[in-house]
Design brief:
This protein is of the alpha/beta class and 311 residues long. The protein contains 11 helices and 9 strands. The relative contact order is 0.15.
Amino acid sequence: MLQPADHQTIAIDDPEVAELLQGAVDLHVHPSPSPFPRRLPIAEAAWQAHEAGFRAILTKSHHHSMVTDIRAASEALGGLPIPVFSGVALNNYVGGLNPYAAELALAQGGRMVWFPTISSRAHICVHEEEGENLKFPTNNLGLRHTTELGILDAEGNVKPEVDDILEVIATHDAIMSCGHLEPEQIDILVPRAAAAGVTRILVNHPNFVIQADPERARRWVEAGAVIEHSICQYDERSSFFQPDWGIPTLLRFIEAAGIDNTLLGSDLGQKNNPYPVEAYATLVRGLLDAGLPAGDVRKLVNDNPANLLGL
């Protein structure tokens, strides 16, 4: 098993933090290949996580399924040091709400299907509002702008392909992510997924793009979801950081949803942002300093994401 060229080990000098990261699982890594500028490829993300004691990672592209990319990276290096998973995001680039794309990704070993992310109305609106203060990267390939995708038709009814996708996810016992849909559509999607037999339901970064409050996150948990918070929001070195998103905000969401229904994912890999492992170490120390018990921190980074992934 070979390390990637130019491999960089990330040292974690805080023994308490290093211990808590043993067995961690990051379900939200953004490596290359991608039309967006990325700081590290799949294999490097796996090696950095492995050396920090992580048990597994799950990679995400907004544009394509990374399942075959993972296989290619593994074959090129004679294997990867930890399990690396992926799935498919149902944006314009794979045909939108396309059950065939979901079925193919999961049949090849994928573990997650994201409903529209960068093609959602919420994301498009936030991206347009950023203006010159862009936080989201722009693609390097000159791709056309995405068109708005959602789960409802013009009459406000759930599109039939949504139920087809939910059936595919349930059949494979995979994770359904609500993507970047607006709160009103997540209100509909979460209970519908649960009724369709989907047992692994995820809401990503509720206060980022989606712009939901802790009470709404609590209701999604009651309907069957778990809540993932993006570490990139809480690291001052990240382009996604905002001062009003401090650890107290994160703790309010954790209190509302419950520690057993909350997990952390880096949401990192972008060109000029910290490495995922670096940001994990920073936020774990911040949560400990804020008084969150070590056992609860371990649930956020280890137990809860591992359980959702089915490890």
